[in-house]
Amino acid sequence: MNTRADMPYSERCPRCQMIVVTRVQYSTGTCWWVIFILGVLVICWPMLFFLCCNISKDVSHFCPNCGTLIAVNRRGC
């Protein structure tokens, strides 16, 4: 497995039993909401720039063949 959790990696899918390179999908998680709330409350508008980047979002790894969720990397703030 790669050391960077936001990069696709080779894994055996538990559902279809194929060795695949995962498909990555980003979604808003706890870290995203913490940055958003702090940015609004402190009126620190440059902080809100990080919401456009994937570094504040959770990363989900899916099997490209059957769509099964293989792993989730939750970002911590």
From TrEMBL:
<comment type="similarity">
    <text>Belongs to the CDIP1/LITAF family.</text>
</comment>
<dbReference type="GO" id="GO:0031902">
    <property type="term" value="C:late endosome membrane"/>
</dbReference>
<dbReference type="InterPro" id="IPR037519">
    <property type="entry name" value="LITAF_fam"/>
</dbReference>
<dbReference type="GO" id="GO:0008270">
    <property type="term" value="F:zinc ion binding"/>
</dbReference>
<keyword id="KW-0812">Transmembrane</keyword>
<keyword id="KW-0862">Zinc</keyword>
<keyword id="KW-1133">Transmembrane helix</keyword>
<feature type="domain" description="LITAF">
    <location>
        <begin position="1"/>
        <end position="75"/>
    </location>
</feature>
<keyword id="KW-0472">Membrane</keyword>
<dbReference type="InterPro" id="IPR006629">
    <property type="entry name" value="LITAF"/>
</dbReference>
<dbReference type="Pfam" id="PF10601">
    <property type="entry name" value="zf-LITAF-like"/>
</dbReference>
<dbReference type="GO" id="GO:0005765">
    <property type="term" value="C:lysosomal membrane"/>
</dbReference>
<protein>
    <recommendedName>
        <fullName>LITAF domain-containing protein</fullName>
    </recommendedName>
</protein>
<feature type="transmembrane region" description="Helical">
    <location>
        <begin position="32"/>
        <end position="52"/>
    </location>
</feature>
<keyword id="KW-0479">Metal-binding</keyword>
